């Protein structure tokens, strides 16, 4: 059979892993794809670097754009990364040249996914991005095809392994964020510049993609409310444990009567829930379909092997002639997103205050909560240190976020409140 | 767009659920499938029964075979059940008439899957069976497409919700099998004739299908070692808990140097493992790919909604023109199964004996184990009742199953051993 000829742009961890997978499992892949899938060309910055893969007989292009024009390339695999610049230029050039594209680039898809899908659809080309979300978990396929018959009400996931590793380690070792981050960087679990991960941007890119598939809407990254994990303290993790929760950075997209709420933020997850038990670098996604019921999937969210597994799954689909629309439906059938502001969210909240231990503090705080119509489910205060700073934890009943925000602004102005209050949303039991 | 016209044979819980899903989510399904999917004909035994679905304008056939010949049916959905008889006749007739088939029938696929796939392949027709395994979890798609690039080393699953419900309830309520089964039957979680479920046959059908996909082999139901849960006692469940395990009915297909081991049996699962936490009627599957790493998926394994979700996912794939080979590769590329006998299995074992509490019992038992080269990791005996019957629990180090079987045969003949010894395989930590 005629091989499907692959050109890979970007030979970092994932690019080298994809080349290795195509070589190691070549026979098995040919059987499943119906024909061989062969690496014929690559492009990367430094030709001399040893990547542990044999590049004999494979065309080297210094310029990634040349892959789109190489007559010996049937499918372009974009593993450069970044939402704009060379990655975007390459994907556009490949589609313009009539070549299917497979990419692991969540930023590109989350920001330019509508335009790129429209171009691919107009050209009658597949555009695969299984590797863009949750690595080794085939969650794109699960949501777009496996649950295609369902009206999805909610998708919630642990979508960033770096954050989950840091939060897990903070809990297990009782240590604070800055030192655990430094350790994670030393171990290679966090980037030298960790901002995209720990500020929630990477998770928000992935959530944008999942929300588009789940709700049949155009990608709308700008509508995602994003908070990272910088402000999570060992103290809050310890209080969470006492209250029966684990703190996780969740990405949540949820249908509400007024539109789709999309948000990435730390959340208190009841320990009895599947997402609470996802530890370390693992990713997981929980999808709620109206007929399927809940479907939960957990696996490795990053790394050479899992990401390569997803890239090559897309290549096999293309070799088999799969014709699934990029976003699960024709572009014309997708709706603009109807985002709901985070201020309209309803839920329970964890509020931790550092206060001076003196009479009347709780009366002042609870009076403000009462004035905003917020009632409390529980309160925690350990020990007594008259005149010293002590933490007080308040757990609210369900309330609207606008109310708790307004209440906190006032609470923060009280003389007895010594630090910016910590607010963490609580997932339903 | 021209609708895809569907004929459903069998209007039990799943058939009625599928009709309801096609009606309830018609607009969404049309968007995702690229054209409407319309129910045009049905067949069932009793036309007068109220199934809560509108059948106005839908052709009724008293004979299921007539669906295969109905010119107003594009795809035949077989929901009759049973490995032979009318279900098999209908699927064969539909393929012979050039009509794609979607079925939820695990028995049919596990036993006749090779011949049916060959017929479908020869006719160039899809044969969908997502609904045959694990209901609402799209595990067929996950394994066949999502993990297609991987060499799979092991698939392990909780594949029968009835058994898992019974085991969960026995543990939570400390009750024994017969009364929990009776309750499950009263609640509709177990069939009036529960044999297929509780004896492990249903799980073995599903495991046969997963093994064929995972290892690129022909279905080989007869090679699956099958044990059910009838002999699991509340006492063993309680000892399991003490030792840090939960007892689950697992289906396991595993690559070994000498072939693929396929087995369904109760197993002690370490409480730290994901499969140990799957409770009640839920199903779950853990797949190990060489590049993806472990992928775990949990969801509702049965019932009208989840099964209908899977049936309609297959219909959407067919409407989209998907051309995945039935078993993930061309029939000619599938290997015969190379089954490994259970006697060649290596692992740790839980052994519970009811013995007369008298001096020398343990010496006799451990001498036999020593003679068979079996060493012990731990031993449990609670309290003392000289002259009375007491349970002794022995946990072995890894050993070959042939050795433990031989040892037990000898142990069972000791005068001080009062009942057939209970043996439960232990999953690795």
Explain this structure.
The structure is a homodimer of 429-residue chains. The first copy, chain A, is an alpha/beta fold. Chain A folds into three domains: 4-132, NAD(P)-binding Rossmann-like Domain (Rossmann fold), CATH 3.40.50; 139-300, Dihydrodipicolinate Reductase, domain 2, CATH 3.30.360; 343-426, 2-Layer Sandwich (Alpha-Beta Plaits), CATH 3.30.70. Helix content of chain A is 36%, strand content 24%. Chain A has 14 helices and 17 strands. In chain A, helix 4 packs parallel to helix 5. The mean pLDDT of chain A is 96. The interface between A and B is large, with 60 and 59 residues. Chains A, B: It comes from Acidocella aquatica.
Write the layout of secondary structure elements.
2 copies of one chain form a homodimer.
Chain A: E1 4-9, H1 13-24, H2 26-33, E2 37-43, E3 59-61, H3 65-69, E4 75-78, H4 86-96, E5 101-103, H5 106-123, E6 127-128, H6 139-146, E7 152-158, H7 161-173, H8 177-187, H9 195-198, H10 201-215, E8 225-226, H11 234-243, E9 245-256, E10 259-270, E11 282-289, E12 293-300, H12 304-319, E13 346-356, H13 361-371, E14 376-380, E15 389-396, E16 399-400, H14 401-412, E17 422-426
Parallel strand pairs in A: 1-2, 1-4, 2-3, 4-5, 5-6, 8-10, 10-17
Antiparallel strand pairs in A: 7-9, 7-11, 9-10, 11-12, 13-15, 13-16, 13-17, 14-15
EC number (chains A, B): 1.1.1.3
Protein name (chains A, B): Homoserine dehydrogenase
Pfam families (chains A, B): ACT (PF01842), Homoserine_dh (PF00742), NAD_binding_3 (PF03447)
């Amino acid at each position: 059979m005629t091989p499907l000829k692959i050109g890979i742009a970007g030979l970092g961890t994932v690019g080298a892993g994809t080349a290795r997978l195509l070589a190691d499992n070549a026979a098995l892949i040919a059987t499943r794809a119906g024909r061989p899938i062969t690496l014929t060309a690559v492009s990367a910055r430094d030709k001399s670097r040893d990547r542990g893969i044999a590049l004999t007989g494979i065309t080297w292009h210094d310029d990634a754009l040349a892959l789109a024009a190489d007559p010996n390339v049937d499918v372009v695999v974009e593993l450069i990364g970044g939402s704009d610049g060379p990655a975007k230029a390459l994907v556009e050039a490949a589609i313009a040249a009539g070549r299917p594209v497979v990419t692991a680039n969540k930023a590109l898809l989350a920001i330019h996914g509508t335009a790129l899908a429209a171009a691919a659809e107009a050209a009658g080309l597949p555009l695969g991005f299984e590797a863009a979300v949750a690595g080794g978990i085939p969650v794109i396929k699960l949501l777009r095809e496996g649950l295609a018959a369902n009206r999805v009400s909610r998708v919630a996931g642990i979508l960033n392994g770096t954050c989950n590793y840091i939060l897990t380690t903070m809990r297990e070792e009782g240590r604070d964020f800055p030192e655990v981050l430094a350790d994670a960087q030393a171990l290679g679990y966090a980037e030298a510049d960790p901002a995209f991960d720990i500020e929630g941007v990477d998770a928000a890119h992935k959530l944008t993609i999942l929300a588009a598939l789940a709700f049949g809407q155009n990608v709308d990254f700008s509508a995602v409310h994003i908070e990272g994990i910088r402000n999570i303290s060992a103290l809050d993790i310890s209080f969470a444990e006492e209250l029966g929760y684990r703190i996780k950075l969740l990405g949540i997209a949820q249908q509400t009567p007024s539109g789709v709420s999309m948000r990435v933020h730390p959340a208190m997850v009841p320990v009895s829930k599947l997402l609470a038990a996802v530890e370390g670098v693992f990713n997981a996604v929980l999808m709620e379909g109206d007929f399927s019921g809940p479907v939960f999937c957990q696996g490795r969210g990053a790394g050479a092997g899992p990401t390569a597994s997803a890239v090559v799954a897309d290549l096999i689909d293309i070799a088999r002639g799969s014709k699934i629309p990029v976003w699960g439906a024709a572009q014309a059938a997708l709706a603009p997103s109807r985002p709901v502001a985070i201020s309209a969210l309803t839920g329970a909240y964890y509020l931790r205050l550092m206060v001076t231990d003196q009479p009347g503090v709780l009366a002042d705080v609870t009076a403000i909560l009462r004035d905003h119509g917020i009632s409390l489910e529980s309160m925690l205060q350990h020990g007594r240190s008259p005149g010293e700073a002590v933490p007080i934890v308040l757990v609210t009943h369900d309330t609207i976020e606008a109310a708790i925000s307004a209440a906190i602004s006032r609470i923060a102005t009280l003389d007895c409140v010594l630090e910016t209050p910590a607010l963490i949303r609580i997932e339903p039991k």
